[in-house]
From TrEMBL:
Ranges of residues in domain AAA+ ATPase: 42-194
Name of this chain's protein: DUF2075 domain-containing protein
PANTHER family: GENERAL SECRETION PATHWAY PROTEIN A-RELATED, PHOSPHORIBULOKINASE _ URIDINE KINASE FAMILY
Stored Pfam families: AAA_22 (PF13401)
Top-rank lineage group of the source organism: Bacteria
Gene3D superfamilies, A to Z: P-loop containing nucleotide triphosphate hydrolases (3.40.50.300)
GO molecular function, one term: ATP hydrolysis activity
InterPro entries found in the cross-reference section: AAA+_ATPase (IPR003593), AAA_22 (IPR049945), ExeA_AAA_ATPase_DNA-bind (IPR052026), P-loop_NTPase (IPR027417)
Amino acid sequence: MYKDFFGFSVSPFNTTPDASFFFASEQHQEALARLTYAIEERKGFVLITGEIGAGKTTLCHTLLSKLTTGVKTALVTNTKLTSKELLKEICHEFEIKFENSTRLELMHRLNDFLIDQLARDNNAVIIVDEAQNLTPSLLEEIRLISNLETDKEKLVQIILMGQPELSQKLELPRLKQLKQRIVTRFHLYPLSFSEAEQYIRHRLKIASVNERQIFTDSAIEEIITYSGGIPRLINIIADQALLHAYSSGKHKIDHNMLKEVIREFIPPHELKVKPLVKPSEPLHAGEIAETAPEEHEVAEKSIKRKKRRFWSLFFSGGNGKKSHDCMTHSEDEGVEIEFDDFIIQKINKFDRRFSRYLLSRPSKNRIIVRFDAFSKFKKELEKDGIFIELPE
């Protein structure tokens, strides 16, 4: 409706999973790389989780767009199925004929298809979106499908994508065997403030036929704040703002218009997310805090205090090893920690285990730990005999 008015070739903030709008943030690139590797190396089960609107389905469609013709895929999006209906859906996606087949016959047909693909040097992948809706029985059915393998090769790779409840469901005792087969896990977090800003400008650039600035910087900040860094909410708010500006005959959207749009047109339940606050300006050396915040709430409170942005703490290696001094300060939405080579080697050694708590990969002698994960990160280090001791 508003495309010609603003000079768009396509609507920039559709909520459909359009791979051409894929925003390659660091975490989305890593997730895509892990998926591609798992498929190419025939690793078996992969688990991708993320909050509603975090970009899982767009990631899935981007993956599909990048796979070669030698990869046959079955995308299952309807997860409210019976066991037999699930098998039928998979066979349908693989274009396997199955008229009037029993469940056992469906399994035989699927097995024959997979063996044929292996003989052709093709790869077969089953992707289940919204997998958190699968019942434990259906998840067990999927595990049985993964049993279709030769002595040397897995015949099918299975990717489960869903909300965090999926990880919780996999903790059920009856799904222990399935959980053990998952070789790669990745969780998509909301975008950081800077990533969310890049995301908005990225979509506008793709859709625009000119370089006209439609959103003011303050309007973009409003979108990011209220969206909590969740891509789908960014799209919903920005799309409503464009529609409102079009109906008002205005070519520029400022923060006042954004607030009006959010108040009048965005349902309250859509905004039940944690607001994303723009990070403070970098601090100067010498602004030392008296204590180190341990929990997320304390950290948030402390970084708002002027001249209380830095705090000292040190790592104590277990078994009587010497202490390892470090300095931390606020950086974007995380705690930046600088330390010596002993600790960075520990972090790199267990990179996959610690990566879930970091805003970015370890570099040189520094890492940035997410505020909301600082306490968990601390406890994870303690498992390896590395303790963060807060100064008194």
